User: Fold these one by one.
Assistant:
Number 1:
Amino acid sequence: MRFYVTALLTMFFLSSCLKQSIPDAMLGIKDHGKVTATLSYKINGNAVNISVADADNQGATNYTLGCSKNPGYYSLSGISNAGETSFLFYTDSLAVGNYKYSGTYGDMFFIDYFNTAEYVHAPSDSLSFTITSYSNGHISGSFSGALTPLVTASTINNIFGDPGSVLITDGSFKNVPVFY
Amino acid sequence: MSLLFFFIIQANAQIGVMKLVGNNTKNYNLGFGAFIKGGVPVSDAGDVTLEIGVNYFPSKDAGEGTAMCPLKAGYRYTLNGTGEGFYLEPQVGYNIYGVTSMLDDQGYNVDLKYHGLILAAGAGYLFSIGNVPFDINLRYETVMAHGGSNNLVSLGITKSFSFGKRDNGN
């Protein structure tokens, strides 16, 4: 009998520690304080850092650093002095795991670095994002990859630079809010 | 698979009515669920149980709701030690599939999918009408995922299908 009482009390204790419902936790509807979202990486060794205090207080459609839900995909985007960093998670329901976009899928813009657009273009190019945590409506994780710079944009044929010449290393993101 | 079937000598089909409890659950109507449950007697008083089911909680808003598919293992212990009468049953398991569907501000459907650890504690009464065994039970269950939990209280009735008999020593 003591075992059952202990099991019951443990369950009530654990469930009471989680005061939100799962949907509310996933949507970030809660009573937490201000959350600072960060995204950082090195592009060919040059650091890019984005930090937003009170990240939940950004507009859901106009944010400095966030991830928004769209039909069929989620779009992570961050704005820094160097330009824009973006990544698309092609899924209907974002979850912890690895999301990789490779050059075999076709050209895709990911980073604007001081007015140079960096693409996944060559077959050997890729950008890989790993979400290690998705809790309370915020995602955290890491990313890395190799991109190709767009040298000249054209309406007919874009001219790209050396394939895989833009290395993305030490990429990490933390507490990035997911907007629905 | 045949080994599993061999050991599960008592299977139950259960239906239940349930209610989500906790913060921000007022918008949900009463839910309902269906379960299949198997048990292996390990003593005169106790059975190890395995249960899989589906729970559905419709929202008061059209087109919205929550569904979960729990897989749980438990230990059912009858208080009088006979395998019938009042019993207690703690369970632990995994939510194989959970989804909450809702509409966003633009009216698009959003599916929030999750899994998560399940803890449950139940009590019930095992009895027979004629030769047909029944089980009425009350259970509290929590599913934990993404830093939140879905908590529910369930009242269920079970009809048992026995593939074997407990050894009563008679």
Note: The longest strand of chain B covers residues 85-103.
Number 2:
Amino acid sequence: MKTLGNAVWHAYAVFTSKKLILLFVFFLAFFQNKSYAQEKPFSAYADLSRFAFAKQKDSLKKAWVCPAVYKDKKTQAKYVEIWDSRTSFLIDAIQGNNFIYNKEIIAYVNGIISELTAANKDLIKGNPLLLIDRSESVNAYAIGGNVLAVNLGLISYVTTREELALILAHELAHNILDHTGNAMKQKAELLTSEEYKASLNDVLSSEYGRLTKLKEVLKSYSFSRSKHSRYKESEADSLAIVMLNKTKLNFNAEYFLKLDSSDNEYRTELKQPAKSYFTAFNLNLEDQWFVKKSKGLSGRNYNFSKGENLTDSLKTHPDCIERYNATKHFTSANTVYTTIPASIHEAADKMIVWNLYNNMSLTPALYRIMLLKDKNNKDAWYDIMVYNIFAGLYYSDRKLARFNSIGVVPKELISKDYYATQTMLEQIPAEQLSSAVKSMGGLPFWSGASSDSRGFKSFLTSLISREDISKKEQESSSKEFLANYPTSIYAEVADKFK
Amino acid sequence: MKKILVLFAAMAVSTGIYAQSKVFKEVNSDISSESKTIFSGGSVIGYVVFTQLEKASQDSFNYKLSIMDENLNDIGVVEFREIGLYLRAISFEEDVLCLSYIKSTELGKDYTKYKEVKKKESKDFVMTQFINLDGKILNTENISVTTSGSFSNSGYGRSSSYSYNTRLKKGLQLEGLKGQGFLMFYGDDNSSKLVKYGLDGKQLWTSSMADAESYYLNTAGSNIYMLMKNEKYTYGDYTFTSIDAATGKVGKTRQLQDKEGNQLRVRTFEADPQSGNLYIAGSIINNKRNKVDPRIKVFAKAMTKGVFTIDMDSTAKNGMKEKYVYWSDGSLQPDINKLGYTKSNKSYNVISTTYRDYNGNTYFVTDELRKHVRVGGIISSVVFAPLIVVPFMQAALGYNVYTYNNTNIFKLTPKGALLQENEIKMKRTPKGAGKADINYLSNYRSNYSLANEEAKTTYLVASDSKTTQIYSTEKRKIIRTVPYSKDGSTMLIGPAKEGHIMVIEKNTKEKYTRLSIERLD
């Protein structure tokens, strides 16, 4: 790079006429198209929660001892059971790498939390333990016990610091108001109450309609829980606004309206036809593979109405419009907001794509890359991931697991372009898939690839080299990769073959 | 004292938890499910799970039908109340689902004492239900039937109970008739009937069918055909008729035999993928060898004389086009002689299935039947000859054994030329006793075909005890090999949506069943 840069500079110094400057610009543009910046690692194997939060996991185990609250032994026992199941949930999630450590994201989010804590010392007793959940869904949650989890999907979705601050304040409010603790208590009380037991006995003593009666018991329980939950959400919204005010962070009620469309990622249409995204990869994908040809029921005009929608009374969160209306008069006059740094979004987006790939959710992983390309993202790592996705799909096909890797979703839940992409992944014949992987393996974007990306490519190549590759051969390839790149995030996949 | 108190507390806690799980367990014990695949025009288009939810009253139950598309995604639920039901058949035509059940006043009821059931008389029906894709039950029709249902006892002591079981003498068959409605065939203890329903579920006509041991209904090319099998011969003894779709009038019954009077053994009775018209294919059975059980020695004496196809362009007499190719014609000689013996692999060809491609070629898939001498039996007979009993016992077992080796594919072109197309390597079966029926080892093999209308491609799915191989007719090669056992899981292959197979992975150790719908190629 250095030598070539010097040559360009030399050319500029020698030729100064307008024509030659144009020639130089052309040369520079040509050269830029053919070069790829050296890929930087976005995450490491040690960032997975099993390793990064090992200490916290052990201390949580010790610290989260269920307090004695009830004199009634049955209620206390039930409370302990519920309490312990929460601890197990969190510990299993840490052990299962549901969370990830990312220095920049954690520092950024913790920065907002510290600001909120400092301004609300009377409410918040010390900074909570912040966990970054690898899920792509736009969400954050309070676990209680001063633990807060923020999904990568939320980090990727929010555009301003204030928007993120509102959600963090809302979750902190849940912890302050001990909503999780109270919910556990209420559940223990209800499950051991005479009324609940009587209603269950009523189910057992009935000769007819037992399932209907049991459903009614559970429905009334969920209704009561949801009603409480919705109240708690409104309560957390109110406290969050108070906390934001004290922190001098702008509040905009329109953020609630924005949250209403947060789950639309896979309903978003692409800017170009799905097929055109693969032209850059020299993939000759046939038009017919993007079109559903099945005679099946999925292509019919069905309209079964029963049991499809969650009735309003069972929703745990109040409608976003309701939340907007209840809080709009608190919207700050100041309309200057701080944009979330691009590097934060970049890290979150990459980790989401990697997480989806690691879970073999290949269509969402690919579609997210296509959406990022629509935002003019030219990071070569995503090209590498397109290769990995096609290679993964071919491997799945060989292992008769292509269907599950694609995760075929009904058309009414996704955009037309997502459906077309999903259909292509489903319909591309194995032979063409194999050719596509081979052809992509020699594309120029590999020139800027990091050594572990190239090592992972070799690992995948070994997996798909033959149909009858044995478990031992897979293990040996895995061990080789892990020995060469022990710190690489790709080790997460390689480790599965060990 | 303290110890006793602790124990008491533990019991109290566990009783509380037990009470809750007991409710779920007991409610769950009333729930039972069965699933069925929905076919339309030979393709899988979806799935139905029929669930008996709970007892709704003394006589009725609440039922749920969960309808899934071809990708196993739920698309809707229909709930209804009825007396005891068994779901038996399902069909789909013009966006209407048709489901046939056996319905009985006694199904699903449990009695604890014999005297309670001694004088019970069940009223049995065939119930046909029509549901559109808005989840609306368009109509329900009931036909009273006479069955030999009875109460049977299960369990011991206190858990002993009596429950009613019934089935129709001739199983229910349901087929869609393109653009017109549905045809349902059933046979009770008195008669066998064919009923036509319109798309609105209204009964249009009923026809009585002649007596037969087995019936096969087909509605290829918007015509109605019935193939019937009788038991005069193990192989053969098929008759065939057509039924007028408008009136239900049953046409003339024809015996399936060649011009020399040899019986025809039907292996396929289905629609030609290209024309959509019915075709029948199978083997020509030598009448001289058709009166005894098919053993290896009998088979070796030219039990099959060749292959045949019958094409039905219409239900008219001149619409039937027959084609017979005999081993003795010489087209496959010198490798296959007049007895159907293949010299190159020292075996006979037992036709297991046939199928057609989109170019009008008919493929006859055969299992190589090989005769072996039972050397051990001969030696022991010689060595123990003075004992008399031993040679006598050995002779009773026979001095031959047989195995099934590879699978062969023969192609019959539209012009009538029979060609050796390919051979698929298979795991040899264990040895079967020479004096036993050659069908005893047929469980070790399974061959069936699949077609992809869109791509105009056909496939053969050939399984032995170790693997399932998928053969592409057009590429003339194996395109997938699936081991029967993989990483502690059992892998089963079945039909799925067009151009795909259903892979069922069962792992008993880790207790999971994974379904996957995979491309054929």
Note: Residues 31 and 488 of chain B are 30 Å apart (CA to CA).
